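Researcher: Please generate the 3D structure of the following complex. Treat every line as part of one assembly.
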Amino acid sequence: MTPPDAVRTVGLTKRFGSHAAVDGIDLVVPAGSVYGFLGPNGSGKTTTIRMLLGLITPTHGEIELLGHPVPSRVVDALPRVGALVEGPAFHPYLSGIDNLRRLDAADRTADPATSGRRLGEALDRVGLAAAAGKRYRAYSLGMRQRLAIAAALLTPKDLMVLDEPTNGLDPQGTREVRSLIASLADDGTTVLVSSHLLSEVEQVCTHIGVMHVGRLVTQGSAAEIRRQQEAEAWVDTDQPEQAARVMRELGLSDVRITPHGAVGRLGEVAPEKVVTACVHAGLAVTRFVVDAPTLEEIFVGLTGEGFDVSG
Amino acid sequence: MSAADLTTPVPRVAMRRPSPRFLASELRLVLRRRRNMAGLVVLAAVPIFIAVAVKSTASQPGSDAPAFFQSITENGLFVSLAALTIELGLFLPLAVAAISGDAIAGEANLGTLRYLLTVPVARLRLLGIKYAAIVIFSFLATFLIAIVGMAIGLILFGGGDVTTLSGTQISFAAGLGRVALAAVYLSLALASLGAVGLFISTLTEQPIAATIATVVFSTASFILDSIPQVHWLHPYLLTHHWMSFGDLLRAPIAWDGVVHGLYLAASYGLVFFLAAWARFAGKDVTS
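Model: Done. Output below.
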C-alpha cells in the first residue's frame, strides 16, 4: 500500500465577497514528496495554505491534512505539521528564544522536560544560536525568517508547510533554505513549499503545482510536467519555406518560419525523420536542434510574464 | 496491513496532561511588557498621592470630600478604599481594557495569532487562557492598589480599631477582612468588564481600538447610570453596583447591592465570553 497523501483537497474554493481567491482546486501532495507550489503573487497560494492549516474556512470543498479532515479535526493534524505562513511574526519586545519558549509552552504535545534541548537544536539548525538572546525587534529580515523556520522545527514533523521561505533572504540564505528542505526530505518529512520564483525551488522539488488566478493550472511530478510540454524541432536552412512545407507534411504542428529556417512541434514524430526528410527534399540543413522547454519556460507559459498581480 | 492500519493511517499525537505552562507564559507576556508595568505603577501611585496630600494639608478633608476621605486621618485602612473609589471611575477600567483589548487583537495585529493557532492551540483553549490571564490581572491590579494604600495609610495615619460607615467599631483584623472582601468584589466586577474587552478584541485587528471601545463601554455605563430618566436601565448596567463595595464597610454588612453586583458580573462575564467564542470559533484569521 502506498502511504496516504499528506495533503488532499477536493474542489477547494474560497470566495471573499464575489471574488474567488481560490477556485475549485484539487491539490494532491503525496507523502514524502517535496511539492513546489508555484504561482505569481496574488494567485491564491497563501489563501490555500491558510485553508490547509485551518486558519480560514473554505467556502466550498474538502481538505484532508495528514488524513484528518480540516477544519473540523485540524487540531489532530497540526501537531505533526510545521508551518511558515506569510512571513515571520513574533513579539518584538521578547528575545528570539523567549518567543520560541512561548510557542513551545502553548504546544500541549511538547514535552516540557526536553524543551531546552529542542529549542537549542532548532536554533542551531537555522544558524541562529548566537543571536538567540537578542530582542526580536533587533533581528534583520533574514534572521526573522530563520526564527520562524526554527519555530516550525521545535517538534518532529511529518509535513512542513513553507510559504515563501526565501523571502527577504540573501543568496546565501536562499541556498541554506534549499539545503534545509533537502535535509528535511531526507528525514522523510513531506515538504510543501510555495514560491513565486521557480528557480528558487526547482532543484529540490519532486512535484510541482502551478497556481494562476485562483486555479491550479497544472500539477504532477516534475518529470510529468516536463513531458506535458512537447519538444520542438528547429531546422536552420537557407530555404525556410521549403523546410516548413516538409515539416507540415511530416505531421509537425504549429510550424512557423524563423529568421534562419523553420520550427515545429514534434508530437509523435521522431526527430531524426525531420532531418532525413529535409535532406531528401534537397535542403541544405546548417543546424538542427530539438528543444525541450525548461520548467521555467513552462511556468512562464502557464502564468504569463508581466508584472501584473493576478486576481 | 490490517484493517486498523487502513482506518487510522496517521496516529493521533498524544496530548499531555493539562499544564500551566501556557498560562504562565501568557502572564509573563502581560506583566513583562513595559507598557503594562508602567500602568501598574500609575495604579499604585494613586493611593500614595492621596495619603501624602491628605497628610500634608494637615487638616480634615471637607464634608464634601468623596466617601472614605473623611475617615483617612482616623485609620490608614481607608486610604485603600479611597484610592479604589477614585480609580474605579477610569484608571482601573482602563487598565483592564488595555489588557483585554490586546488579548486577541494584539496577537492578530502582530501576526502571532496565526502561529499560535497552527502550534496548534485550539481556539476555545486560547480564549480560555486569555480570559484567565485577564481575571488574574484584574485581581492583581485591584489588590495592588489595596495593599499599597494600606501600607502607606498605616505608615502615615496608623491603624487600630475601624469605625464602620454605620458608626460602630470593629477590630482592625475585621476591618482588614472587609477591605479584602471589597477588593475581591471589585476584582470580579472588573473581570466581567474584561470579558466585554475580550469579545471586542475578537472583532478587530487593532488592539488600541478594542481598548478604547472597552473604556467607552464602561464609561457609557457610568454615564447612563447617572441619568435618572433611564432608571429602568440602571439595574442592567455593568457598573451599576460597582460602588456598592462601600456597603461591605457597614455593620452589619448590607449585602444587597454586592450580591446583585456579583450576579451582574457573572452574567456579563458569561454572555460576553460566549459571544467571544461564537465570534472567534469560525473567524477567518487573515492577519
